[in-house]
Design brief:
- The chain has 662 residues and is α+β, with helices and mostly antiparallel strands.
- The protein has 24 helices and 22 strands.
- It has a five-stranded mixed sheet.
- A hairpin with a 6-residue loop joins strand 17 and strand 18.
- Helix 1 packs antiparallel against helix 2, helix 12 packs antiparallel against helix 13 and helix 16 crosses helix 17.
């Protein structure tokens, strides 16, 4: 048994890791750890605290729910605490749970149901009308997401025959088909796709724009009654039957059993049936059925004593690598994908998985014909995690030296792990370039989404962004689902984009290493596209916030064959090529800011734009050179580093007050 000092040190390490990952998972919808890795850390901490009770602290992650309410939404205090569940990873732990229930003098009847992997949400109905929806948050205080929930078609807004008041708890989830569609759109736009459906659902529900939430295909399964007035319910199974009768979508599978062995058998059946599900599940739940018995059992500080969640172990399969296919992205990056003999994994048959880049392939020494290990990250995205055996006489795979789309040479740039095709006319890049050009932070052409861009490119109507400005009404009417009104709306949106400020056009060109902040700096510093186009390395490096790599990217882009023709054609069509001179001060001159967390009245991009327009520099990382950190909700590691370095931390209100100072 480890000594107390060792145990104390390890407990502190575990708490720091778990809390950091809680912020990523619950507040930023961007986890770094797989569920089973997070569960193992939490389990280790729980066992340490059980062995050394003096190590338990009130703020330990074992004593509270992981999330925190965001300032982006109004706060909601839950009348009934939204608790999390104790996890079990073996059938013996389920038998121990049953023993604890029976030791309390209870002869239980259990309900076993699927544990949906999504975002926990409360719905409140008054006389059958949906009046409020809120997230779990930290279990006591959540976020008011009523308007976003109203945009989800599958959630009933009215209930027939409903009681005077009803609060239910459910799990908002994203069906697999909707998740795959969203990931495809994100990849085409050059954005990092969500890691799994749970994070996609959470990120979609917590959007500032309800229209975006409504477009994501979300749904919900209700699994509990939190409060009810006007009807008396005595059992959990009876309450689910009642909710189903009201028209609410309840847990898709729930069975009443009388012994823990029957419950375990049902859990095995649920696990075997995962293949037929169109949503993610991360386990099964056992609940005491009788509400009076639940009251008798009560809860700990964090978990109810009347329920437990069983987590299925991650599934890994071996298969044979058949070939490696290469795709070309918007910026010319070559991405390798493994094609292997099909295996049945976590509910579906899979035969492909990303290999990320050349370095990833080299680490494993991958050879065609190897026996490889495959799993599903988050039970949804296939990935290669190892090599069991190399094929006899096989040779390690080598990435291509020319682009598979256009045949141009591929290169490594600036010590990148990725290989790139730098041919501006590469057809594989044209669609992704077009989608980026039309995106919100670029030229913001409403109605020119992924589906429309794809049709325009596939039908040969558009090869580059300049072709957008020559489109006719007749051409648009040949596209699927296009009528007179939609064609006219898109033409007006394209025409409006000609008046955009220069920074949006520069960002829309998709210059490698040049984001929207750098595009604004270029537009302000040089004032016109011609001046940007002819700027040399020395001039570019004089811009505060510009390094050699960014400057080199600009020079290389405008030196490419085809770039000059693109700029000329855009100018001929009337696209604005000059900086319109937004109001600027020098109040932040010489100061570097880092914006972190979620602000209530500004997006992070808007706050950074204000900093730049007032002479400051907006950085993505905290260092000794940072003047201020502007911290919103769930600020995370950047706030911790600022405090450690003694850097002044501003609230959103304090930052805005600085803007008003003379």
């Amino acid at each position: 048994m480890m000594e107390l000092e060792q145990a104390k040190k390890r407990a502190e390490e575990l708490r720091a890791i778990i809390e950091y990952n809680n912020r990523l998972y619950y507040d930023q919808d961007a986890p770094e750890l797989e569920d089973f890795q997070y569960d193992a850390l939490t389990r280790e901490l729980r066992e340490l605290e059980a062995a050394y009770p003096e190590l338990v602290t009130p703020d330990s992650p074992t004593q509270h729910v992981g999330g925190t309410p965001s300032s982006r939404f109004a706060k909601v205090t839950h009348a009934v605490k939204m608790e999390s569940l104790l996890d079990a990873f073996s059938y013996d732990e389920l038998r121990d749970f049953d023993r604890r229930v029976r030791d309390a003098g209870i002869e239980p009847e259990y309900v076993v149901e699927i544990k949906i992997d999504g975002l926990s949400c409360s719905l409140e109905y008054e006389n059958g009308k949906l009046v409020r929806a809120s997230t779990r948050g930290d279990g006591v205080v959540g976020e008011d997401v009523t308007e976003n929930v109203r945009a989800i078609r599958s959630i009933p807004k009215t209930l027939q025959g409903a009681p005077e008041y009803l609060e239910v708890r459910g799990e908002v989830y994203m069906p697999h088909a909707a998740f795959q569609k969203l990931c495809e759109e994100q990849e085409l736009q050059g954005a990092a796709p969500f890691k799994n459906p749970r994070n996609a659902a959470a990120g979609s529900l917590r959007q500032k724009d309800p229209k975006i939430t409504g477009s994501r295909g979300l749904s919900i399964f209700i699994f509990n009654v939190q409060q009810i007035r006007g009807v008396e319910l005595t059992t959990h199974a009876g309450s689910l039957d009642y909710l189903k009768g009201l028209g609410l979508p309840v847990s898709p599978r729930y069975h009443v059993v009388h012994t823990i062995e029957e419950a375990i058998a049902e859990i095995e059946q649920i696990g075997q049936g995962r293949a037929g599900l169109d949503f993610d599940m991360d386990g099964a739940v056992i609940k005491v059925n009788d509400f009076a018995q639940r009251t008798q059992l009560g809860s700990t500080a964090k978990f109810p004593r009347w329920a437990i969640a069983f987590k299925y172990p991650p599934e890994v399969k071996e298969t044979r690598l058949l070939q490696i296919e290469i795709a070309v992205g918007r910026t010319g990056v070559l991405t390798p994908t493994a094609s292997f003999e099909p295996v049945f994994l976590a509910g579906t048959t899979v035969s492909r998985a990303t290999l990320h880049n050349e370095e990833f392939i080299r680490q494993f020494g991958l050879c065609i014909g190897d026996t490889i290990q495959v799993r599903k990250a988050g039970d949804i995205i296939p990935e290669v995690i190892g090599v069991t055996a190399h094929a006899e006489g096989a040779v390690p795979y080598q990435m291509p030296t020319v682009c598979p789309s256009c045949g141009a040479p591929v290169v490594h740039l600036a010590d990148e792990a990725a290989l790139r095709c730098i041919n501006p006319e590469c057809p594989a890049q044209s669609l992704r370039n077009l989608i980026h050009f039309a995106s919100r932070d670029a030229m913001d052409i409403d109605g020119l989404g992924v589906a429309v861009c794809t049709q325009l490119v596939d039908r040969g109507l558009v090869r580059s962004a300049a072709d957008l400005y020559t489109l006719t009404r007749e051409q648009l009417l040949t596209l699927d689902k296009f009528k007179d009104k939609s064609a006219d709306n898109l033409l007006r949106a394209i025409a409006r984009s000609k008046e955009n400020n220069l920074d949006k056009l520069i960002f829309g060109l998709g210059i490698r290493n040049i984001g929207y902040k750098a595009a604004a700096l270029l537009a302000e510093r040089f004032g016109s596209m011609d001046a940007v186009r002819t700027a040399d390395m020395e001039a570019l490096c004089t811009i505060d916030g510009f390094g050699e790599i960014m400057a080199q990217s600009v020079v290389e882009f405008f030196a490419k064959e085809g770039t000059e023709d693109l700029i000329r054609r855009l100018a001929e069509q009337g696209v604005n090529m000059t900086w319109k001179g937004e109001v600027r001060t020098d109040r932040f001159a010489g100061k570097t800011f880092v914006v972190t967390g979620t602000l209530s009245s500004l997006s992070r991009k808007e706050a950074e734009a204000l900093i730049v327009r007032n002479g400051g520099k907006a950085s993505g990382s905290v260092s000794k050179k940072t003047a201020y950190v502007v911290a919103g909700e769930a600020a995370g590691s950047k706030l911790d580093k600022a405090n450690a370095l003694g850097i002044p931390v501003l609230t959103e209100a304090e930052f805005l007050a600085m803007m008003e100072q003379e």
